[in-house]
Amino acid sequence: MVTTLPYGSWPSPISAELLATGGTRLGGPQLVGDEVWWTEGIATEEGRNAIVRTDGPVHRPEDAPGQVTVLPSPFSSRSRVHEYGGTAWTALPAASDGAERPLVLFVNFTDQRIHAFREGERPRPLSPVGPEVTTAGGPSLRWACPTPVTLPGGEQEVWWICEDHTGGEQGPRTGADGAPHIERYIAAVPLDGSAANDPAAIRRVTPASRFVAHPRLSPDGGSLAWLSWEHPQMPWDGTRLHVAPLVGGSTGAGTVVAGAADISVLQPEWLDDQRLLFISDESGWWNPWLWSADEGARQVLVAEEEFAGPMWQLGETSFQVLDADHALVQHGRAATSLSVLTVSSGQLTGLDCPFTLVSSAQVRADGLVVLAGASPTRFAAIHLARLDREGPSAPVLGEPVQLRSSREDAPDPAVLPTAESIEVPLPDGGVVHAIVYRPRQEGFEGREGELPPFIARVHGGPTAHVPPVLSLPVAYYTSRGLGVVEVNYGGSTGYGRAYRDRLRGQWGVVDVTDTVAVVEHLVAEGVADGERLAIEGGSAGGWTVLACLTRTSAFAAGVSSYGVSDLERLRQDTHDFESRYIDGLVGPYPERRDLYVERSPLTHVDELEVPVLLLQGDEDRIVPPSQSEMVRDALADKGIPHAYLLFEGEQHGFRAADSIIRATEAALSFYGQVLGFSPLCMPVLELRRS
To answer: InterPro entries under this entry (predicted)?
Structure first.
């Protein structure tokens, strides 16, 4: 039997509590000896990142061990390098020093100090407390991307990327551009704790650059490869690959062997002592390249698909070297596939993998694969599989077996939506990529003649990408009778450099026109109600929300989460990693101040005529609360219905369960009031006009 109810008012088993507390934020799995380790975000413990492991060895994918929380509360493994952080922990196998359990090293979120411990012990600091630096907005010494290395003499060390706000011997100061002087470099931090009270015990391995990433020591310990880039480049604009001899535990600047200000190079990995495999977009796509001292750099494979993604977080990888001629690679456009690459021939052998998103994959010497994957029918999860490369045929990936899911309480498939990837034609002959999720819950339908309200969701970044995978926040809406479309507007990754570069100098223009083109297409196709269109997004997505609301009449309402509203103020207030990002997205400052003013939604707030919900964390260093508060004040001055919710203790994105519940329910109540439907059993959000 089918029940007919207005779109938006269907009863749904997917609650805000389910979004906040039922799921688990999983961090990239690692193989530590015979065990699998990973991180989990615990929303009920203020969002802390715990390190966990299997409670026993894993020898086969069919093994189903339980798990043990390794990192005790209240410690949280999370780095603030670049504010977005990255890999913040590693574990040295017990066999390396004769101990019974691995030595765990991690960055503690609150003080950003490196700590070490073995299970059952209280973590002890290895790195010093950085001196107070006002402009740091927190600890002045930060660490990320731990890299265990073995020196030529056999000594084991762990190298880290250090973000140093102290200014060294000269102390805190500003650079020629007026910005605080910040250095980043690769450093060796002693494992014996001697640097905890003596910063001089830390050895700099590389010279300082504005940004560094991905240190890799050659197998013989003789050469170091790493990446660097300087302002105003972002790592997807241009990076440089250095190779330098390691002498006395340190290097000079070495030789730049690949990359440039307009060529993005990512993830160098040694195949042997003489050759590096890396990813470069010199061809227009992030493809595999090879460098050797004898032959220089050459492209291994030419393919119009991506073998990497934007380096927002340090330590992310998209391939693993299997031997001197083979690598396990992740690649694709909208979706991700797994293949084995033969470096010498450039041959790509596809593996049968059921996921449309593979965010990490590691292979143990015995062929056990641990991977993090998701699909339109499976929530993000850690899986185990077997890679067979010894048989008479091509490499074969066995059926993945789930080890740990981000959602152990997945709803009935009857209330989950179906992803439809679409390409919307543009007047200039190009296309916009998007993913449509129509309202869906078995047993319910909308009233005859009624079209559903639709919410356009725009991702942050803006250099980012939304893959076609199962999303509970999307299902929260679709199971109630609301449609959702995820827009991968020009500037999104996954479709090559030319598509990414459509946004260069055009932020606030291309993202707006692309998003409007998508919703207008849905209206023209009879999929969405053109009078009941809303838009939501966070960070750079919040900017696009506000830009669409102030520059177009396509939407009846918008929800901006920690969104950008004033480019000049953002340029002054935001953190170092993104402080010159806008140069490429809009133009150099102050030379093109006119564009900064003209593009800012705050400049056009007089044209804003529809209600807005603003969600903001009070500790956000990336998009400070002032960005939302200026919009709030402008809405109040115009008497437009609005609400501003400030979440205590939250940074750029909400992690605590109470914050997630409150924000989710507020958004649904807001949409109901503005778009004309009554969500069931939902606290009513108070909208103000002053």
So the answer is: 6-blade_b-propeller_TolB-like (IPR011042), AB_hydrolase_fold (IPR029058), Peptidase_S9_cat (IPR001375), Xaa-Pro_dipeptidyl-ppase/CocE (IPR050585)
Q: In this predicted model, which residue has the larger pLDDT, 530 or 567?
A: 530
C-beta of residue 101 within 8 angstroms of C-beta of residue 121 = no
What is the maximum alpha-carbon separation in the chain? 77
- The pLDDT tens digits for 45-65 are 877 999 999 999 999 998 878
pLDDT for position 173: 87
Cis peptide before 232 (omega within 30 of 0): yes
**Which of 290, 359, 357, 368 has the alpha carbon at shortest distance from 324?**
290
Dihedral sign computed on CA atoms, order 136, 139, 141, 143: negative
* Cβ-proximal residues to 427 (8 Å cutoff; 6+ apart), any chain: none
Q: Could you tell me the end-to-end alpha-carbon distance of the chain, in angstroms, rounded to an integer?
A: 47
- Give me the phi and psi of 666, to 5 degrees please: -65, -40
Cα–Cα distance, 309 to 305 (Å, whole number): 11
3-class DSSP state of 511 = helix
Distance (Å, whole) CA 168 – CA 176? 17
**For tokens 């056990």, what's the residue?**
368
Cα–Cα distance, 378 to 414 (Å, whole number): 14
Look at residue 635 and tell me whether its pLDDT is greater than 60.
yes
pLDDT in tens, 273-291: 999 999 999 999 999 999 9
Looking at residue 86, the DSSP 8-state letter turns out to be B
The single-letter DSSP state of residue 60 is S
Contacts of 591 (CB under 8 A, 6+ apart): none
Could you tell me how far CA 261 lies from the centroid of its own chain? Answer: 23
Pairing relationship of beta strands 3-4 and 444-445 according to DSSP bridges = parallel
Residue 476, beta-bridge partner list? none
- What H or E segment, with its residue span, contains residue 141? strand 141-150
Enumerate residues 6+ apart whose C-beta is below 8 A from 101.
94, 118, 119, 120
Place of tokens 């290395």: 149
Report whether pLDDT(232) > 60: yes
The letter for the amino acid at 241 is L
Residue listed under structure tokens 């709030």: 632
Look at residue 643 in the predicted model and tell me its pLDDT.
96
Alpha carbon separation from 340 to 107, 310, 388 (Å, rounded): 33, 22, 11
pLDDT tens digits, 153-201: 889 999 999 999 998 878 888 877 777 889 999 999 999 999 999 999 9
Are 35 and 12 spatial neighbours (Cβ–Cβ below 8 Å)?
A: no
Whether cis (ω within 30° of 0) applies to the bond prior to 199 is no
Q: Is 565 helix (H, G, I), strand (E, B) or coil?
A: coil
State both tokens at 321: 């070297």
Phi, psi dihedrals of residue 69, rounded to the nearest 5°: -80, 120
Question: In terms of DSSP bridges, do strands 483-488 and 454-458 run parallel, antiparallel, or are they unpaired?
Answer: parallel
Cβ-proximal residues to 194 (8 Å cutoff; 6+ apart), any chain:
201
Handedness of CA 644, 648, 653, 654 (dihedral sign): negative
Around 583, how many Cα atoms within 13 Å sit in the side-chain half-sphere? 15
Indicate whether this model's pTM tops 0.70. Answer: yes
Two tokens at 591? 């030379």
- Sign for the pseudo-dihedral over CA of 373, 375, 377, 380: positive
Mean pLDDT across the chain, nearest whole number? 93
> What would the two tokens of residue 67 be?
């798990």
Q: Which residues contact 645 (CB under 8 A, 6 or more apart)?
A: 613, 614, 615, 616, 662, 663, 666
Average pLDDT value for residue range 360-384: 93
